[in-house]
Amino acid sequence: MIVGVEAILLDRDGTIIFDRHYLNDPAGVELLPGAVQGLRRMSALGLRLAVLTNQSGVGRGYYDEASVHACNLRMAELLSACGVELDGVFYCPHAPEAGCLCRKPAPGLVEQAVAVLGFDPRRAVVIGDKEADMLLGRAVGATTILVRTGKGTEHEARCRHSADHVVDDLEAAAAIVESLK
User: Fold this and answer.
1) 129-150: buried (b, 16+ CB within 10 Å) or exposed (e) per residue?
2) 123: which of 6, 53, 72, 175 fits an S-S bond (Cβ 3.0–4.6 Å)?
3) Has 169 been annotated as catalytic?
4) CB-CB neighbours of 43 under 10 Å
5) Which residue in the list 11, 129, 133, 164 is annotated as catalytic?
6) For residue 181, what pLDDT band results from cuts at 50, 70 and 90?
7) 133 part of the active site
């Protein structure tokens, strides 16, 4: 674990917003309790905030990339209205069987974020509610925080060896990030 965090890499569904199975309508975007407060605290530390999200509904033909963009835009608008600005949103549109390099836990989304935002992934914190998020963090040498929102409680036991920290929500994750800064 490298002290001196530069970037926060966040899962979207179940971490920042409620996990609506195959969300494709921006009207369904709703921020989770504690999300704004936690992201505000992390942003106040001068950290880059980037969202990394698997959106296999595109690859499965359930919805198109325009729907992903619309939902991401709605999330960014809700956060911005509360004083939180995202530095980037990166997503994988592929189905799991596609074997791509960007579907979490593969490192492709982190590589995209690094190329755009310019940070050392070993000086990042990956925060999410699923094992794939924790394994992604491990793959790139980042610190990992599992939040119990979304599917976090369900994934907690299987993340025993991949999560550096386990907390209730993004507000509690912010306290961990502050201690690492």
Assistant:
1) bbbbbbbbbbbbebbbbbbbbb
2) 6
3) no
4) 19
5) 11
6) confident
7) no
At 64, which amino acid appears? Answer: D
* pLDDT tens sequence across 159-179: 999 999 999 999 999 999 999
Would you list the DSSP string of the chain?
--SS--EEEE-SBTTTB---TT---GGG--BPTTHHHHHHHHHHTT-EEEEEEE-HHHHTTSS-HHHHHHHHHHHHHHHHHTT---SEEEEE---GGG--SSSTTSTHHHHHHHHHH---GGGEEEEESSHHHHHHHHHHT-EEEEESTTTHHHHTGGGTTT-SEEESSHHHHHHHHHHH-
Model confidence at 3, pLDDT cuts 50, 70, 90, reads: low
Rounded (10°) angle between helices 108-117 and 131-140 = 60
Which residue among the candidates 13, 129, 133, 169 is catalytic per the annotation?
13
How many Cα atoms occupy the beta-carbon half-sphere of 55 within 13 Å? 25
Q: Does residue 83 have a pLDDT over 70?
A: yes
